[in-house]
Amino acid sequence: MAETNEKASSMSEHVESGGKFDSPVDSGSNTSLEYDEATVKRIKRKVDLRLCLVVSLMYTVCQIDRTNLGNAVVAGMGKDIDLTGNHYSTMVVTFFPFYTLFQPPMTVIARKFGPRYFIGGITVAWGIVMAALGLVSDWRALVGLRCVLGLLEAGFFPSCVFLIGTWYVRHETAKRLALFYLVGSALSGFGGILAYGLQQMEGIQGKAGWRWIFIMEGVLTVLMGLVGLTFIVDFPEDARRTRWFLTDREIDIMIDRVEKDRGDAHVTPFNLKEYLGFVADWKAWLFAFNFGMTAVVIYAVAYFLPIVLREGLEFSVANAQTLTAPCYVFGAVLGLAESWVSDKYKTRGSIIIINSLVEIIGVCVLGFAANNSVRFFGAFILVGSCLANLPACLTYQSNNITGQWRRAFGSALIVGSGGVGGVIGSLVFRNQDKPHYRPGLYTCLVAAGLTIVSVSITTIVMARKNALQKRSGLVLEGTPGFRYTL
Predict the structure, then answer these.
(1) Could you read off the pLDDT of 270-300 as tens digits, one per residue?
(2) What is the radius of gyration, based on Cα positions, of the chain?
(3) Where does the sequence pass through the membrane (predicted)?
(4) Is the peptide bond before 480 cis (omega within 30 degrees of 0)?
C-alpha cells in the first residue's frame, strides 16, 4: 500500500511540473500519450482564454446586478419606492434564501445540460429580471423580483467553480479561481461609477435615474449571457463537440493530467448517495463555514459601503458612488498576487488567516478612527482583504476534495454557505444604527475571527493526516497517494 501511495504521489508531483508521460488515457483509444511542458502551457492558455476570462467577465455583471441596490438608493430610489422601516433590508435579504437553497440542484442541472447552455441561459434570464426591477413602483414587487434573481443566480457561481476545477490540476486552480472571481469583482467595483453615469439619464422617457441603472445594467447582462452561450467551454469529456477549440489529443492531455493528479477526470453516473455523502464529512462544513464568514464581510461591504461613505463619512453622492472602485481594484491585485504565491508554494490556509487578520484591522480603522481619510483607508484594506480571501477559501476546499460528484456538492455547499453569509451581511447594517453602524462592524469582526479559528482547526487536522499518510500509507479521501494541500 505504501509503495502504491508513493507512486501515485510521485505521479501527481510529476504532472504538476509539466513533465513527460507515457500512460494510457481512456478517450476511446488505448494508445499512450507523451507531452511536454510547452505543450501543456499552450493548451492551458487556450482554456484560460475560453473559460476563465469569459466567466470572469460574466461574473462582473453578476456582481453588479446582485449589489446595485445600494447605488440605486444613493441615486434616489427612496423618492419613488417606500424604503421606510425594514423595507430596504427586506429587499436585500430575500435574494439569499433562494440563492442558497437552489445551489445543490443547480450543479446537477449544469452537469446534465452542459455549462455553456446552462450558464449562458440563466445569465440572459436574470438580465431580463434585472431590467424589470427598473419598471416597478412598489417595494413588494422589487422583493418578488429579487427572489427570482436569487434563484437564477444560484446556478452561476458553483457551476463556474465546478467547471474550472475539472480542467486543471490542484496546484493550478488558485490562479484560475482568483482570475474568475477577482477580475469580475474588480470590474464590478466600477459599478458605482457606471451607476453614477446611468443616473444622469434622469428624465429620459420620463424615468428616474435610478430606474435607468437597473434597466441598462439588465441589458448589459443579457448581452454577456449571449457571449457565454457562444464561448463558454464544456466539461473536458464533452469538449469534443467544439472541435475548433481543442483537438482530440489536446483534450486527452488535459484529461490525463487531471486523472493523474486526483483520479476523478472521468465523470461517473449520478448517484444521489454519493452526491450527498459529502454531508457526513466534517471538513465539508468547516470549508463552507470559512466561505460563509468571509461572505458576511463581503456582502456587508458590497451593500452598505456606499451608504456608509455617504452617511457615516459624509462623502458627496458622487464620491460615495465612485470611491468604492479603487478598493475593489486593490482587492483584485492583492488576490491575484496571493494566488500566485499560493500556487507556487502550495499553501492555502495561511493565506486565509493573513487576510482575515487584515480584515480585522480594516474594520477597526473604518469604524473607530477619528479622521475620515484614515477611515477610508480602513475601508480600502477591508475591501481588499475580504475580496482576496474568497478565492483563497474556494481553492482551499477545491484542493482537498476528490470525486466529481463530491466536488459538485462541495461547490454547491460552499457557495450556498456564502448565501447564508449574505443574509447575515445584509441585515447587520441597520438604518437605525447610522451614522456609526456599530452592530455591523462588530459582526464583521466576529466573522473574521471565526474564520481564523475554523481554518486553523482544519489545517492542523489535515497536517496530522498528511504525516500519517507519509509514514504508514494511509489512504486519504479514498484516493491512494492523495495528500491534503494545507
Answers:
(1) 777 777 777 889 999 999 999 999 999 998 8
(2) 23
(3) 117-137, 143-165, 177-198, 210-233, 284-305, 317-337, 349-370, 376-396, 408-428, 440-463
(4) no
Return d(Cα 447, Cα 131) in angstroms, integer: 34
Q: What is the pLDDT of residues 294-327, one digit of tens each?
A: 999 998 887 778 778 877 788 887 787 778 888 8
**89 compared with 216, residue with greater pLDDT:** 216
Nearest-angstrom CA–CA distance, 321 and 316: 9
Residue 211 CB burial class (10 angstroms; 0-12, 13-18, ≥19)? buried
Q: What is the pLDDT of residue 242?
A: 65
DSSP string, 464-484: HHHHHHHHH-PPBTTBTT---
Which residues, other chains included, contact 383 with Cβ-Cβ below 8 Å and sequence gap of 6+? 301, 305, 324, 327, 328, 330, 331, 362
118: number of Cβ within 10 Å? 23
> Tens digit of pLDDT for each residue in 433-451?
887 888 999 999 999 999 9
If one counts every other C-beta atom within 10 angstroms of the C-beta of residue 128, the result is 15
For residue 255, the number of C-alpha atoms closer than 13 Å in the C-beta half-sphere is 24
Q: Are 253 and 377 in contact (CB under 8 A)?
A: no
Which domains are delineated in the chain?
38-264+272-472 (1.20.1250.20)
200 C-beta neighbours (distance < 10 Å), count: 11
Q: What is the DSSP string of 317-340?
A: HHHHHHTTHHHHHHHHHHHHHHHH
pLDDT one-digit tens code per residue, 164-206: 988 999 889 889 999 888 888 888 778 888 888 999 999 999 9
Q: Compute the average pLDDT of residues 210-236.
A: 93
Pair 382, 362: CB distance under 8 Å:
yes
Cα separation, 225 vs 117, whole angstroms: 10
**What CA–CA distance (Å, rounded) separates 482 from 473?**
10
> What does the CA dihedral 350, 355, 360, 365 come to, rounded to 10 degrees?
140
What secondary structure does DSSP assign to 212-280, as a single string?
HHHHHHHHHHHHHHHHHHHH----GGGGGGSTTTS-HHHHHHHHHHHHHHHS--SPPPP-HHHHHHGGG
pTM of the model: 0.77
Distances (CA, A) of 238 to 119, 143, 145, 248: 15, 39, 34, 11
